[in-house]
Amino acid sequence: MKTISLTNYGSNVLRAILSLKVVDADMPKPGNDEVLVKLHAAAVNPSDIAFIQGGYNIVKPLPATPGFEGSGTVVDTADGLRHLIGKKISCFVQNDKGGTWSEYFTVHKDDLIVLDDRMDMDQAACFTVNPFTAYGLVNIALLRESPAIIQNAAGGQVPAFIRTLAREHGIEVINIVRKPATADKLTEEGNKYVLTEQDEKFEEKLKTLAHDLTATTAFDAVGGAGSGTVFNAMPGDSELVVYGGLSGKPMTGIDTMDVIFRDKIISGFNLIDWKNELDENEFLEINEKLQQKFINGEMKTNIRTTARFEDIVKGLKEYIGNMSSGKILIKP
């Protein structure tokens, strides 16, 4: 079979991408509680870029096959899982034996989602991470009974899903973006509160809106100095939930007095940990609800283009050039 192999980690993202090679490999065999999946498509996520740079929390022995998320069809299994053969699945793979950027790969039964036959398989390639991340984050706002939320990197896919889910619950959303063009796009889509970081009055406008709307929950996908800007703008008794680090920089500028005297906190959100806290029935209910939203068109991942294995370097360069313009899928 063909697989994409990472030969070197590299903090320089372009050098890391250039170390990717398409190679021939032996077909993997499913172990206990595992299935063998024939790939339909694999999504490219920021976590994949962090992984090939050696900056993710998962580091595999080299050479390694990248790719955490994807969709495909089960073609073989270990004993006891024969009922899954022929099933279409979406999955998130984190084992050392391989990744989803491969014609075939193995996945543990607990890391896959059996799909409704009506699910589009391209959409399914992007199903296990972003929709569930958005659901988990919005649930935090619901538990806090926040009338409004703040989110940065608002041109991305998770923020788009957050807007959809927040709208269902009557939660206002303050969207923060870097580029005026992205702000124009979100405004044209009907989003009421859109702020651009380049605006010279950005911090003033953010603080005014956060207090006027009582935005006591914020979702930070960026880190860096932006974390402090959002945190400091929020009213008392607020929570900044960090779920990404797109800036690649440590959080800075946090007002210490706000932490001590205004009951403001910073927490982290890790999708795997959140899923592990759910019982099986809770997860199945959320899964069914989210799949139905994709089937009926309420939710949809913006897929920009597809890259074949042999075009992986070109595809990843295009992706990192403008992550907010849509997903790239990798197909054999």
Topology:
Elements: E1 2-6, H1 13-18, E2 20-24, E3 34-43, H2 46-52, E4 69-77, E5 88-92, E6 104-108, E7 112-114, H3 121-124, H4 130-144, E8 148-151, H5 157-168, E9 172-177, H6 180-188, E10 193-196, H7 202-212, E11 215-220, H8 225-233, E12 239-242, H9 256-261, E13 265-268, H10 271-277, H11 280-295, E14 303-308, H12 312-321, E15 327-331
Parallel strand pairs: 8-9, 8-11, 9-10, 11-12, 12-13, 14-15
Antiparallel strand pairs: 1-2, 3-4, 3-6, 3-15, 4-5, 5-7
Helix pairs in contact: 4-5, 7-8
Summarize the structure.
This protein is α/β, with parallel strands linked by helices and 332 residues long. It folds into two domains: 2-127 and 301-331, Alpha-Beta Complex (Quinone Oxidoreductase, Chain A, domain 1); 130-272, 3-Layer(aba) Sandwich (Rossmann fold), CATH 3.40.50.720. Helix content is 34%, strand content 24%.
What does this 3D model show about the protein?
The longest helix is centred in the last third of the chain and has 16 residues, at 280-295. The chain is built from twelve helices and 15 strands. It has helices at 13-18, 46-52, 121-124, 130-144, 157-168, 180-188, 202-212, 225-233, 256-261, 271-277, 280-295, 312-321; strands spanning 2-6, 20-24, 34-43, 69-77, 88-92, 104-108, 112-114, 148-151, 172-177, 193-196, 215-220, 239-242, 265-268, 303-308, 327-331. It has two domains: 2-127 and 301-331, Medium-chain alcohol dehydrogenases, catalytic domain (Quinone Oxidoreductase, Chain A, domain 1, Alpha-Beta Complex); 130-272, NAD(P)-binding Rossmann-like Domain (Rossmann fold). The model has no long low-confidence stretch (mean pLDDT 95). It has 332 residues and is of the alpha/beta class.
